[in-house]
Design a protein that fits this description.
This protein is mainly alpha-helical. About 70% of the residues lie in helices and about 5% in strands. It has 13 helices and two strands. It is elongated, with a radius of gyration of 31 Å. About 25% of the residues are buried. It comes from Sphingobacterium anhuiense.
């Protein structure tokens, strides 16, 4: 009887000791630093203005005289940036080499260049915020991954140790009833540890992002003006996608539904990713990081459209 009691104590002690060693003391300072976003742009940040709503731009561009020399995409961009008047005046001054004409050309070109520079600055600023946020998410995801990996390793080692302890105890105990009890207890505890390694979610963490650019894309609404008006126009205007049938914004959301949420839009609607933040598991963090990188790539692609506008303007007005 004494041997049975002793074996149970040993086995239980091994289990308790192991499970205690599995608990991870979180780096509180590290988590507090990453819990709340430091990537939100300052309130004084200036953005390029879109001078007309989308429907007005579309209507005006159809019958504009610039159609004879500019592509439709570039005319839409000129309207969005408020530069159609300046471009038309430059066309009229083309070939005029008088001093007053040259001065006027220089003045207009300076305004056009400033506007284009501000638009490019908008793109870089949005991309920088997304880059910062992706790095923040990756740091937290890496932290949780390390905890989960360490936990699983300890569970595996513990399961092996318990199995070995049960085997040794079984070899030393001659009483069959006690021997069976030890074997069963060791098997149950080892199986329990094995079960914990199958936990698909693992550790969780609080993670917040009140300034959530992904939410604006998901809802296809920028009423809080998280994006500059120019960038939002470029994202929401169908003409700037490859096939022109749906916007860059809609295409990105569709890809998220298909690849991040297994073609289940309702799953995305309920995801913490598009909220102000909350409880995140590692998989959610990795999904958020991937989506941020995809949005950043789409925004950076606007540079190609601006470059095309500059090339066409130089060719037309030279």
């Amino acid at each position: 009887m004494f041997l049975a009691t002793k074996s149970k104590i040993i086995t239980t002690a091994l289990f308790i000791g192991f499970m205690t060693s599995c608990s991870v003391n979180k780096n509180t300072a590290f988590m507090l630093t990453l819990k709340n976003s430091y990537c939100i742009p300052p309130t004084y940040f200036l953005k390029a203005e879109q001078t007309l709503p989308n429907y007005a731009i579309d209507s005006l561009a159809i019958h504009d005289e610039l159609n004879s020399v500019f592509s439709r995409q570039n005319i839409l961009m000129l309207y969005a940036l408020g530069l159609t008047k300046e471009i038309k005046e430059l066309q009229k001054l083309k070939g005029n080499t008088s001093v007053s004409a040259e001065i006027r050309k220089l003045t207009i070109n300076n305004k056009v260049n400033r506007t284009l520079l501000l638009a490019l600055s908008d793109i870089n600023a949005a991309a920088a915020e997304l880059d910062c946020e992706a790095e923040r998410v990756d740091q937290v995801a890496g932290y949780i991954d390390n905890i989960n990996a360490s936990r699983n390793n300890k569970l595996v080692v513990g399961s092996i140790a318990l199995g070995a302890a049960a085997s040794i105890a079984g070899a030393l105990i001659t009483n069959n009833n006690v021997n069976n009890a030890v074997g069963i207890t060791g098997g149950v505890l080892g199986g329990g540890l094995g079960f914990f390694t199958l936990n698909p979610k693992g550790k969780k963490v609080e993670f917040f992002h009140p300034h959530n650019l992904l939410r604006n894309v998901w809802t296809e609404n920028d009423s809080d003006q998280s994006f500059s008006p120019f960038i939002w126009y470029m994202l929401s205007e169908k003409e700037f996608s490859n096939d022109g049938s749906s916007s860059l914004l809609h295409n990105l959301k569709t890809r998220w539904i298909d690849y991040q949420f297994d073609s289940n839009e309702n799953q995305g609607n309920q995801s913490v990713i598009f909220s102000d933040g909350g409880i995140y598991f590692a998989d959610d963090l990795h999904s958020r990081a991937a989506m941020i990188n995809q949005l950043q790539a789409v925004i950076r692609s606007i540079n190609q459209s601006i470059n095309n506008l500059i090339l066409e303007a130089n060719k037309t007005l030279e």
